[in-house]
Amino acid sequence: MMILKFGSKGDAVAILQKRLNTHGHKLFVDGDFGQLTENAVIAFQKSKGLVADGIVGDKTNAALTGSDTSKFLTDADYIAAAKRLDVPELVIRAFAETESSTGGFLTDGRPIILFERHHMYQYLSELTSKANADKKRVQYPNVVNTATGGYRGGSAEYTRLALAKQFNEQAALQSCSWGQFQIMGWHWKSLGYESVNDFVAQMYISESQQLEAFLRYIEWKKGTVDKKQISLLDALKAQNWHAVFSLYNGPNYKKLGYDSKFTRIMNRLTPIYGNKAA
């Protein structure tokens, strides 16, 4: 799906402007996504309870065309999350977009996942035997492996998951990161879920439930950064981004470009949400 935002031009913008006009706006249909169009988009998003960022992607288009938007995150979800963690709303929104700019679901309604074959090797070894894991690694290296990688993206990740579930369902579900915030399935017990199946079931319900898992993760996660013990929540409150990214994405976050991406998104969202306290 094409993303339309301030500065976009062309036929897709003209179609957007026509759709906005059917919802009560009075835009000149010129195919130029300027300030008036952005204002109209934000007003429409607010009227539907969507994230009001002025960017038109799958969610806003779904609302414009009358499709079901009940699974999507709302402004109210972000406001409540910010109050719960006692951090600026801007930070929660930036995290959400950095992890998944398209949201928490595929177009077919399944949660976005990323299958990690090296975790599958680990959990298959623990839940069955190392010999079994080694055998599967030789036979199916893209599903069971000691190395990371093999990613296919999108719905193709479910193909890998389906094969892994044939070997051991719990190991397979634990080896995926789930939803908009890409929380690993193996965290289920630490985050207070009854089982990994319970955790996965919640990820299917809505982005609000995916956000709940993210909030639990922030409240639970602790670790050592630069030889100092620190909790993810304390790092987030202090806006100690090095500690935040290290705890959330690992020590190689800079190589992955995570900090740069987060900064770009923060800069774009700051004019909209930067003055909102928790």
TrEMBL record:
Domain N-acetylmuramidase: from-to ranges: 91-269
Stretches of the chain forming a coiled coil according to its record: none
Highest taxon listed in the record's lineage: Bacteria
Keywords: Hydrolase
Residue span(s) of domain Peptidoglycan binding-like: 10-64
GO terms for MF: hydrolase activity
InterPro entries the record matches: Ferritin-like_SF (IPR009078), Muramidase (IPR024408), Peptidoglycan-bd-like (IPR002477), PGBD-like_sf (IPR036365), PGBDSf (IPR036366)
Keyword hit for Repeat: no
UniProt xrefs under Pfam families: Muramidase, PG_binding_1
Name of the protein this chain belongs to: Hydrolase
Phylogenetic classification of the source organism: Bacteria, Pseudomonadati, Pseudomonadota, Gammaproteobacteria, Moraxellales
